[in-house]
Amino acid sequence: HLVAAFGADNYHVWVNGFPLIDDGRLAPLGTYHARWTRGVYRISKSMLRSGANQVIAITVRNGGGYTDLFPQTLGDFEALTRASAKRTFMLNDFRLVTMVVFGLLAGFASVLIPTTGNRPFTIWLAILAWALTLRIAYYRWWDPPLGPEWLTIYYLAVSNLIPLAWFNFLDAWSGQGLPRARAMASGLYGVLMFGITLMILDSRLDGFLVADKLSQAFTVAMGCGAAGLLMWRALTMPSNRYWEVAVFSLVLTAMVIDASYEFVLQTNVGNLQFAQPFLMLAFLAAMIVLGSIPVSSDFAARSQSLPEENSPADTEL
Length: 317
Hints:
By secondary structure, this protein is mostly helical. Helix content is 61%, strand content 8%. The strands form three sheets. It has a three-stranded antiparallel sheet. Strands 4-3-6 form a three-stranded antiparallel sheet, with no helix packed on it. α2 (93-112) runs antiparallel to α3, α3 (119-140) runs antiparallel to α4 (148-173) and α4 packs parallel to α6.
């Protein structure tokens, strides 16, 4: 039995000339099945022979700047399944569930935009949820109609939109954000993506390596800026909103740590990736419990003016 692990867009594996993994295409433009982590593969007895056996893997990388090669694991099926169960769940089913949760939240926030009392807050909540949904969808988009250059630009665009949305969401949530902070952060994002687009289209592989570094630096900058803004606003926040401040602090800490590890050590820690859905739901739960979700006065007035059950209007009707 085999647990295959390659940092590639797609790969095929043969055992003694028999195909074991052959999802999608390798050429001329391969598909992206390897982005959705696979589990344990059973090697049929008919593929094996006495003595030495040969395992051949061919990888293809179109959408990134490099290929990661890891030691492949062979062993007993039950032992491999137990050892890799958590990793397989977190990188497959958990991602899928998270994408559905973020998608529902994005749709809910989009519907609330016309009725909210703090429209920038709801707009940036919707943008954040849509960005998170689209980034996870990138890993599930096995055969997109985009070329590798534009697919890379798409990934970097939604990945960089997430720290921007967190910063602007926090600035709008505070109710008294810094003057023109959201406009300046959005302008910086626009300049960054314009430069990244030119680099990727001019030299996709070398451009990706530089763009990836710039994206990590942008994430650190947005995280540190949001942390400073949060500390400044926490001093004047009402005491009943400390739960929201606590959740925001966890988000920003995980964001800065992850980006710093990638920037310095080229290691994907994934703290924010796996904790983000729980932290966002905890933040919204805190707002609902404390009654701090902004609703427009017109909407509230219309809601209060609706006839109650068994009211005279109902009786006459």
